[in-house]
Amino acid sequence: MDFSEDQFQISKHYITDSIRKVYKKRLTLPILVLFLLIVLWAAFPIRTLMFPRTIQQGDKLTGHKFSQQSGISVTIDHLYFTGYTSSMFGRSNGYYYYTTWNDKCLIVLLSPSTCQEGLSSMDHVTIHANIRKPGRSYDQLLFQLSKDLNWTTDGLLEQMDATYLEEFSVKGFSTFSFLLLYLGVAAYTIVYLLLCILWSFFPQISPPVLALHKFGNPKQMLAMAEEELSTLPQLATEDMFITEHYFIEISANGVAIVPIQEIIWVYKHSTLHKFLWYHFIISYTLHITGNHHFYLRCPKNIKSDIDGIMDYLAEANHNILVGFNEENRLKVQEIQNHSLHLEGFFNFLKKHI
Q1: Model confidence at 277, in pLDDT bands (50, 70, 90)?
Q2: Residue 105: beta bridge partners?
Q3: Which of 168, 181, 219, 315 yields a CA-CA distance of 20 to 30 A from 145?
Q4: What is the C-alpha separation between 128 and 179, in angstroms, rounded?
């Protein structure tokens, strides 16, 4: 696809404007993820899992201070095993204990590790727990206890607290994994969102520009590339441009700027897109290797565009190696003075190109 000179004179800062657009588009995903994290924060007791309220044995467990699944940290004295456990997938994942709480009997569901898989009694234990309202499993427990004590269920309920405690670590691995995943996603999302905002306002310090520090002064090279691109590129496709001194990619994948004199190897490989046994289309990817271990991949292009780019680059810099083969790979390895550590990838390409 060709572009006229008038089109490029419309914008004197085509590259920086494109960088702004790229990072503004990338704001959408972290904003959606952040919204989802806020919904999860409101729907689940994440805050109380992370920051449980410290209370004393005997404090009131109901009222406006605590929701149905409020998290607390408490030290409990004199716990006694009921003889009943909570099971999941045929394995005991919790042990029911009872203790005295404000002249009432309080049920406490402890994890196997806390009670050493069913100690008959415990004099002193500190736990992080949720305050739970009675449910089906709790009702079944009281029914069994009432039978053991030869009491009626209603009579036993009069002696029981209206709530019970469930230790966090009863679901320890899942809870820990969830919190770790939540915090990791939240931290990554917030950092990425802030960086995208920063780079959309200040494209001069964005990764595509800072990558130029390998070859010289990034700000000066960006200004030079902008000037050359605004006058008229030597060669242009839909998302790849060549000016007098630079190769420039501006696509949905991002923006890249490479000085032509720093390029040492270019080649292409094809990808056959298919669904089941139906072949749809072949796309081509341009690979560019430069000095100082620079590597650029330009996917989803057409063959004629990439061939034109490769031919022009080879003409502009006669030191550029063109095409993928073992000889060129070894030459690049020698130039780079290091092992590329991509033997498996190269072997794959040799089989498919």
Answers
A1: low
A2: 100, 160
A3: 168
A4: 15
CA angle, residues 102, 103, 107, in degrees to nearest 5: 75
| Rounded-to-integer distance, Cα 345 and Cα 339, Å | 13
Task: Using alpha carbons only, give the angle 117, 123, 126 rounded to the nearest 5 degrees.
Answer: 75
Query: Using CA atoms, how far apart are residues 253 and 233, in angstroms rounded to an integer?
Result: 21
Q: Phi and psi (nearest 5°) for 44? A: -120, 155
Please determine, for residue 185, whether its predicted confidence score (pLDDT) is greater than 70: yes
Residues 6+ apart with CB under 8 A from 163: 61, 62, 106, 131, 132, 133, 134
Distances in whole angstroms, Cα of residue 288 to Cα of each of 195, 205, 264, 285, 339: 27, 23, 8, 10, 17
Query: 293's torsion region: left (phi>0), alpha (psi -120 to 50) or beta?
Result: left
As given in the structure block, the two tokens for residue 96 are: 């029911």
Query: How far is 229 from 248, CA to CA, in rounded Å?
Result: 9
- pLDDT band of residue 4 (cuts 50, 70, 90) is very low
Q: What is the DSSP letter of 262?
A: G
Beta bridge partner(s), residue 166: 109, 130
- Phi and psi, residue 207, nearest 5°: -55, -40
How confident is the model over 304-351, as pLDDT tens digits? 999 999 999 999 999 999 999 999 999 998 888 754 445 445 545 544
Q: Tell me: the pLDDT tens digits for 192-210?
A: 999 999 999 999 999 999 9
HSE value, Cβ hemisphere, 13 Å, CA-based, for 294: 23
